[in-house]
Specification:
- This protein has 326 residues and is α+β, with helices and mostly antiparallel strands.
- It has helices spanning 3-11, 59-77, 95-112, 161-169, 179-190, 196-202, 216-227, 242-245, 250-259, 275-282; strands at residues 21-23, 31-32, 38-48, 80-90, 115-123, 127-137, 152-156, 208-211, 230-234, 266-270, 289-296, 300-305, 308-311.
- The strands form three sheets. A seven-stranded mixed sheet has the order 8-10-7-11-9-12-13. A four-stranded mixed sheet has the order 3-6-4-5. A two-stranded antiparallel sheet has the order 1-2.
- Helix 4 (161-169) packs across helix 5.
- The protein is globular, with a radius of gyration of 20 Å.
- 40% of the residues are buried.
- It binds adenosine-5'-diphosphate (ADP) and magnesium ion.
Length: 326
Protein backbone atom coordinates (compact mmCIF):
# COMPACT_ATOMS: atom_id res chain seq x y z
CA UNK A 1 0.00 0.00 0.00
CA UNK A 2 1.53 3.36 -0.97
CA UNK A 3 1.31 6.51 1.12
CA UNK A 4 -1.64 7.93 -0.81
CA UNK A 5 -3.67 4.72 -0.74
CA UNK A 6 -3.04 4.55 3.01
CA UNK A 7 -4.27 8.11 3.54
CA UNK A 8 -7.34 7.52 1.32
CA UNK A 9 -8.23 4.29 3.03
CA UNK A 10 -7.73 5.13 6.70
CA UNK A 11 -7.77 8.89 7.13
CA UNK A 12 -9.95 10.36 4.38
CA UNK A 13 -13.03 8.66 5.91
CA UNK A 14 -12.38 10.49 9.20
CA UNK A 15 -13.11 13.88 7.65
CA UNK A 16 -16.41 15.32 8.83
CA UNK A 17 -18.61 17.89 7.17
CA UNK A 18 -17.88 21.07 9.01
CA UNK A 19 -18.89 24.52 7.88
CA UNK A 20 -15.62 25.99 9.22
CA UNK A 21 -13.55 23.88 6.80
CA UNK A 22 -13.28 25.28 3.23
CA UNK A 23 -10.57 22.82 2.13
CA UNK A 24 -9.75 19.68 4.11
CA UNK A 25 -7.38 16.85 3.23
CA UNK A 26 -6.12 16.51 -0.34
CA UNK A 27 -4.63 19.91 -1.12
CA UNK A 28 -1.32 21.37 -0.03
CA UNK A 29 -2.89 23.04 2.99
CA UNK A 30 -6.15 22.93 4.83
CA UNK A 31 -8.19 26.12 4.67
CA UNK A 32 -10.41 26.96 7.64
CA UNK A 33 -12.42 29.92 8.89
CA UNK A 34 -12.42 30.62 12.64
CA UNK A 35 -15.58 32.21 14.06
CA UNK A 36 -15.46 36.03 14.00
CA UNK A 37 -13.94 37.77 17.02
CA UNK A 38 -12.12 34.67 18.23
CA UNK A 39 -8.42 34.07 18.77
CA UNK A 40 -6.75 30.93 17.39
CA UNK A 41 -5.22 28.62 20.00
CA UNK A 42 -2.63 26.11 18.76
CA UNK A 43 -0.84 23.19 20.42
CA UNK A 44 1.25 20.20 19.29
CA UNK A 45 1.98 16.92 21.07
CA UNK A 46 4.12 13.95 20.07
CA UNK A 47 4.07 10.37 21.34
CA UNK A 48 7.20 8.32 20.59
CA UNK A 49 7.25 4.55 20.98
CA UNK A 50 9.59 3.55 23.81
CA UNK A 51 9.53 7.08 25.29
CA UNK A 52 5.83 7.83 25.78
CA UNK A 53 4.32 4.40 25.36
CA UNK A 54 5.40 0.76 25.55
CA UNK A 55 6.09 -1.07 22.29
CA UNK A 56 3.01 -3.08 21.34
CA UNK A 57 0.51 -0.67 22.95
CA UNK A 58 -2.99 -1.04 21.46
CA UNK A 59 -3.32 1.35 18.49
CA UNK A 60 -6.86 2.35 19.41
CA UNK A 61 -5.74 3.47 22.87
CA UNK A 62 -2.80 5.38 21.40
CA UNK A 63 -5.23 7.42 19.31
CA UNK A 64 -7.25 8.32 22.40
CA UNK A 65 -4.15 9.23 24.36
CA UNK A 66 -2.64 11.28 21.57
CA UNK A 67 -5.76 13.32 21.03
CA UNK A 68 -6.61 13.49 24.73
CA UNK A 69 -3.21 14.94 25.62
CA UNK A 70 -3.44 17.61 22.90
CA UNK A 71 -7.02 18.54 23.66
CA UNK A 72 -6.08 18.88 27.32
CA UNK A 73 -3.76 21.76 26.34
CA UNK A 74 -6.69 23.51 24.67
CA UNK A 75 -8.77 22.90 27.79
CA UNK A 76 -6.09 24.53 29.96
CA UNK A 77 -6.41 27.79 27.99
CA UNK A 78 -10.22 27.66 28.04
CA UNK A 79 -10.45 27.03 24.29
CA UNK A 80 -12.91 25.14 22.14
CA UNK A 81 -11.38 22.55 19.76
CA UNK A 82 -11.72 23.10 16.02
CA UNK A 83 -9.24 21.26 13.81
CA UNK A 84 -6.65 18.50 13.94
CA UNK A 85 -3.62 17.76 11.77
CA UNK A 86 -1.96 14.40 12.28
CA UNK A 87 1.65 13.46 11.54
CA UNK A 88 2.35 9.74 11.58
CA UNK A 89 5.74 8.07 11.29
CA UNK A 90 5.19 4.35 10.87
CA UNK A 91 7.70 1.49 10.59
CA UNK A 92 5.38 -0.20 8.07
CA UNK A 93 1.82 0.08 6.71
CA UNK A 94 0.28 -2.56 8.98
CA UNK A 95 -3.42 -2.73 7.99
CA UNK A 96 -4.52 -4.10 11.36
CA UNK A 97 -2.68 -1.37 13.29
CA UNK A 98 -3.97 1.34 10.97
CA UNK A 99 -7.57 0.12 11.15
CA UNK A 100 -7.41 0.05 14.96
CA UNK A 101 -5.78 3.46 15.13
CA UNK A 102 -8.31 5.00 12.73
CA UNK A 103 -11.18 3.49 14.71
CA UNK A 104 -9.91 4.95 17.98
CA UNK A 105 -9.21 8.29 16.36
CA UNK A 106 -12.66 8.44 14.80
CA UNK A 107 -14.33 7.89 18.18
CA UNK A 108 -12.06 10.45 19.85
CA UNK A 109 -12.73 13.05 17.13
CA UNK A 110 -16.46 12.64 17.69
CA UNK A 111 -16.04 12.79 21.45
CA UNK A 112 -14.16 16.12 21.36
CA UNK A 113 -16.05 17.50 18.36
CA UNK A 114 -12.88 18.24 16.40
CA UNK A 115 -12.33 17.80 12.65
CA UNK A 116 -9.33 16.13 10.96
CA UNK A 117 -8.17 18.48 8.20
CA UNK A 118 -4.76 17.14 7.17
CA UNK A 119 -1.46 15.64 8.19
CA UNK A 120 1.69 13.93 7.02
CA UNK A 121 2.64 10.29 6.69
CA UNK A 122 6.24 9.06 6.69
CA UNK A 123 8.17 5.85 7.31
CA UNK A 124 10.42 5.42 10.36
CA UNK A 125 10.31 4.48 14.07
CA UNK A 126 6.74 4.73 15.38
CA UNK A 127 5.91 8.30 16.35
CA UNK A 128 2.56 10.12 16.45
CA UNK A 129 2.09 13.89 16.41
CA UNK A 130 -1.19 15.76 16.81
CA UNK A 131 -1.48 19.45 16.18
CA UNK A 132 -4.77 20.81 17.44
CA UNK A 133 -6.21 24.22 16.82
CA UNK A 134 -9.12 25.78 18.60
CA UNK A 135 -10.48 29.18 19.47
CA UNK A 136 -11.70 31.37 22.28
CA UNK A 137 -13.06 34.93 22.60
CA UNK A 138 -10.15 37.32 22.00
CA UNK A 139 -8.39 38.23 25.25
CA UNK A 140 -10.08 35.57 27.39
CA UNK A 141 -7.36 32.87 27.41
CA UNK A 142 -6.31 31.39 30.75
CA UNK A 143 -2.55 31.92 31.17
CA UNK A 144 0.05 30.51 33.56
CA UNK A 145 1.31 33.95 34.48
CA UNK A 146 -1.58 35.58 36.32
CA UNK A 147 -1.71 33.80 39.70
CA UNK A 148 -1.75 36.31 42.59
CA UNK A 149 -0.89 36.10 46.30
CA UNK A 150 -3.77 34.64 48.39
CA UNK A 151 -5.44 32.98 45.37
CA UNK A 152 -6.81 29.52 46.07
CA UNK A 153 -5.22 26.59 44.21
CA UNK A 154 -7.65 24.01 42.84
CA UNK A 155 -7.52 20.84 40.78
CA UNK A 156 -10.15 18.94 38.80
CA UNK A 157 -10.92 15.23 39.14
CA UNK A 158 -8.46 12.93 40.90
CA UNK A 159 -4.66 12.72 40.73
CA UNK A 160 -2.23 9.82 40.36
CA UNK A 161 -4.60 7.34 38.67
CA UNK A 162 -2.81 7.39 35.33
CA UNK A 163 0.57 6.66 36.93
CA UNK A 164 -0.96 3.76 38.84
CA UNK A 165 -2.35 2.49 35.51
CA UNK A 166 1.15 2.63 34.06
CA UNK A 167 2.49 0.67 37.05
CA UNK A 168 -0.14 -2.01 36.41
CA UNK A 169 1.03 -2.39 32.81
CA UNK A 170 4.43 -3.51 34.00
CA UNK A 171 2.93 -5.75 36.75
CA UNK A 172 0.00 -7.42 34.98
CA UNK A 173 -0.08 -10.31 37.48
CA UNK A 174 -0.19 -8.23 40.65
CA UNK A 175 -2.98 -9.96 42.62
CA UNK A 176 -3.24 -7.19 45.22
CA UNK A 177 -5.27 -4.91 42.93
CA UNK A 178 -8.89 -5.94 42.29
CA UNK A 179 -10.18 -6.40 38.75
CA UNK A 180 -12.52 -3.34 38.85
CA UNK A 181 -9.71 -1.13 40.24
CA UNK A 182 -7.33 -2.44 37.57
CA UNK A 183 -9.86 -1.64 34.82
CA UNK A 184 -10.49 1.84 36.21
CA UNK A 185 -6.79 2.73 36.58
CA UNK A 186 -5.81 1.38 33.14
CA UNK A 187 -8.66 3.35 31.62
CA UNK A 188 -7.41 6.50 33.34
CA UNK A 189 -3.99 5.84 31.80
CA UNK A 190 -5.20 5.13 28.27
CA UNK A 191 -8.09 7.58 28.06
CA UNK A 192 -7.33 11.02 29.40
CA UNK A 193 -10.50 13.04 29.95
CA UNK A 194 -9.52 16.56 28.94
CA UNK A 195 -11.54 19.03 30.99
CA UNK A 196 -12.82 21.14 28.12
CA UNK A 197 -16.09 22.27 29.67
CA UNK A 198 -14.33 23.10 32.93
CA UNK A 199 -11.66 25.16 31.14
CA UNK A 200 -14.31 27.12 29.27
CA UNK A 201 -16.23 27.76 32.49
CA UNK A 202 -13.01 28.89 34.22
CA UNK A 203 -12.33 31.63 31.65
CA UNK A 204 -14.64 33.91 33.60
CA UNK A 205 -13.18 33.10 37.02
CA UNK A 206 -9.64 31.67 37.15
CA UNK A 207 -6.51 33.84 37.38
CA UNK A 208 -4.16 31.15 36.01
CA UNK A 209 -4.51 27.61 34.70
CA UNK A 210 -2.37 24.68 33.47
CA UNK A 211 -3.12 21.11 32.53
CA UNK A 212 -1.36 18.39 34.49
CA UNK A 213 0.81 16.43 32.09
CA UNK A 214 4.03 16.13 34.12
CA UNK A 215 2.41 15.89 37.55
CA UNK A 216 1.05 18.49 39.97
CA UNK A 217 4.42 19.30 41.53
CA UNK A 218 6.14 20.14 38.26
CA UNK A 219 3.19 21.76 36.53
CA UNK A 220 2.14 23.96 39.46
CA UNK A 221 5.80 25.07 39.58
CA UNK A 222 5.30 26.43 36.03
CA UNK A 223 2.43 28.62 37.25
CA UNK A 224 4.56 29.75 40.20
CA UNK A 225 7.57 30.75 38.12
CA UNK A 226 5.46 32.36 35.37
CA UNK A 227 3.53 34.34 37.99
CA UNK A 228 6.49 35.09 40.32
CA UNK A 229 4.79 33.63 43.41
CA UNK A 230 4.98 30.63 45.75
CA UNK A 231 2.41 28.09 46.96
CA UNK A 232 1.36 25.99 49.92
CA UNK A 233 -0.59 22.80 49.40
CA UNK A 234 -1.91 20.26 51.88
CA UNK A 235 -1.14 16.64 50.96
CA UNK A 236 -4.28 15.47 52.79
CA UNK A 237 -6.42 17.50 50.38
CA UNK A 238 -5.04 16.01 47.14
CA UNK A 239 -8.04 14.29 45.52
CA UNK A 240 -7.42 10.56 45.16
CA UNK A 241 -9.85 8.10 43.59
CA UNK A 242 -11.24 5.20 45.60
CA UNK A 243 -9.06 2.88 43.52
CA UNK A 244 -5.91 4.85 44.37
CA UNK A 245 -6.91 4.95 48.04
CA UNK A 246 -6.99 1.14 47.91
CA UNK A 247 -3.58 0.94 46.21
CA UNK A 248 -1.36 -1.48 48.18
CA UNK A 249 1.45 1.04 48.75
CA UNK A 250 0.06 4.37 49.96
CA UNK A 251 3.48 6.07 49.82
CA UNK A 252 3.50 5.40 46.10
CA UNK A 253 -0.09 6.58 45.81
CA UNK A 254 0.74 9.93 47.44
CA UNK A 255 3.89 10.37 45.39
CA UNK A 256 1.93 9.68 42.19
CA UNK A 257 -0.82 12.11 43.14
CA UNK A 258 1.92 14.74 43.54
CA UNK A 259 4.21 13.87 40.69
CA UNK A 260 2.99 10.87 38.74
CA UNK A 261 2.23 12.65 35.50
CA UNK A 262 -0.29 12.34 32.66
CA UNK A 263 -3.28 13.13 34.87
CA UNK A 264 -4.61 15.55 32.25
CA UNK A 265 -6.60 17.29 34.94
CA UNK A 266 -6.56 21.09 35.30
CA UNK A 267 -4.79 22.99 38.06
CA UNK A 268 -5.98 26.59 38.41
CA UNK A 269 -5.89 29.55 40.74
CA UNK A 270 -8.80 31.79 41.64
CA UNK A 271 -9.00 34.83 43.89
CA UNK A 272 -10.91 34.37 47.17
CA UNK A 273 -13.23 37.16 45.96
CA UNK A 274 -14.26 35.24 42.85
CA UNK A 275 -14.38 31.86 44.57
CA UNK A 276 -17.99 32.01 45.87
CA UNK A 277 -19.37 32.76 42.39
CA UNK A 278 -17.26 30.00 40.86
CA UNK A 279 -18.23 27.54 43.63
CA UNK A 280 -21.90 28.26 42.87
CA UNK A 281 -21.35 27.39 39.19
CA UNK A 282 -19.33 24.29 40.11
CA UNK A 283 -22.21 22.94 42.19
CA UNK A 284 -23.98 22.15 38.91
CA UNK A 285 -20.82 21.15 37.02
CA UNK A 286 -20.20 17.44 36.30
CA UNK A 287 -16.45 17.55 37.14
CA UNK A 288 -15.33 17.63 40.77
CA UNK A 289 -13.05 20.51 41.76
CA UNK A 290 -10.96 20.40 44.95
CA UNK A 291 -9.23 23.26 46.77
CA UNK A 292 -5.77 22.02 47.74
CA UNK A 293 -3.93 25.16 48.86
CA UNK A 294 -3.15 28.79 48.23
CA UNK A 295 -0.65 31.14 46.61
CA UNK A 296 1.88 33.00 48.81
CA UNK A 297 4.63 35.54 48.31
CA UNK A 298 7.22 33.07 49.69
CA UNK A 299 8.89 31.49 46.64
CA UNK A 300 8.75 27.75 46.08
CA UNK A 301 6.20 25.02 46.60
CA UNK A 302 5.55 23.98 50.19
CA UNK A 303 3.74 20.80 51.14
CA UNK A 304 1.95 20.18 54.40
CA UNK A 305 2.09 16.59 55.60
CA UNK A 306 1.23 15.29 59.08
CA UNK A 307 1.00 18.88 60.31
CA UNK A 308 4.45 19.88 59.04
CA UNK A 309 5.36 22.20 56.19
CA UNK A 310 8.23 21.08 53.94
CA UNK A 311 9.68 22.61 50.80
CA UNK A 312 9.03 20.17 47.96
CA UNK A 313 12.56 20.10 46.60
CA UNK A 314 14.38 19.81 49.92
CA UNK A 315 15.27 17.20 52.54
CA UNK A 316 12.99 14.22 52.79
CA UNK A 317 11.07 15.13 49.71
CA UNK A 318 13.76 14.92 47.07
CA UNK A 319 12.60 11.36 46.40
CA UNK A 320 9.69 12.99 44.59
CA UNK A 321 12.20 13.98 41.95
CA UNK A 322 13.59 10.51 41.43
CA UNK A 323 13.67 9.15 37.89
CA UNK A 324 11.24 6.38 38.73
CA UNK A 325 8.45 8.87 39.45
CA UNK A 326 7.34 8.59 35.84
P1 LIG B 1 2.35 17.37 0.70
O1 LIG B 1 3.36 16.48 0.05
O2 LIG B 1 1.84 18.46 -0.17
O3 LIG B 1 2.77 17.81 2.07
P2 LIG B 1 1.09 14.91 1.32
O4 LIG B 1 1.31 14.11 0.11
O5 LIG B 1 1.99 14.70 2.49
O6 LIG B 1 1.05 16.46 0.92
O7 LIG B 1 -0.40 14.67 1.83
C1 LIG B 1 -1.47 14.70 0.92
C2 LIG B 1 -2.73 15.14 1.66
O8 LIG B 1 -3.06 14.16 2.62
C3 LIG B 1 -2.55 16.46 2.38
O9 LIG B 1 -3.76 17.18 2.28
C4 LIG B 1 -2.32 16.04 3.82
O10 LIG B 1 -2.79 17.02 4.71
C5 LIG B 1 -3.11 14.75 3.91
N1 LIG B 1 -2.51 13.79 4.86
C6 LIG B 1 -1.32 13.16 4.75
N2 LIG B 1 -1.11 12.33 5.80
C7 LIG B 1 -2.21 12.43 6.59
C8 LIG B 1 -2.62 11.83 7.82
N3 LIG B 1 -1.86 10.95 8.48
N4 LIG B 1 -3.81 12.20 8.33
C9 LIG B 1 -4.59 13.09 7.69
N5 LIG B 1 -4.28 13.67 6.53
C10 LIG B 1 -3.10 13.35 5.96
MG1 LIG C 1 4.02 15.30 2.87
Amino acid sequence: MDEFALIRRYFQPLQRDDSSVCVGMGDDCALVTPPPGQQLVISTDTLVEGTHFLPGSPAQELAWRLLGASISDLAAMGAQPGWLTLSLTLPQADPHWLAQFAQGLSAALDCYNITLVGGDTTRGPLSLTAQVQGWLPAGSALLRSKAAVDDYICVTGTLGDSRAGLALLSAPDDQRVSEPDRTYLLNRFYRPQPRLATGQLLRAFASACIDLSDGLQGDLAHILSASGVGARIDSALLPRSAALQRWPDQQHALRWALAGGEDFELCFTVSPKRWPALAAQLAEHPVAVTRIGYITDVPGLWLQQHGQWQPMEAGGYNHFNRQDNR
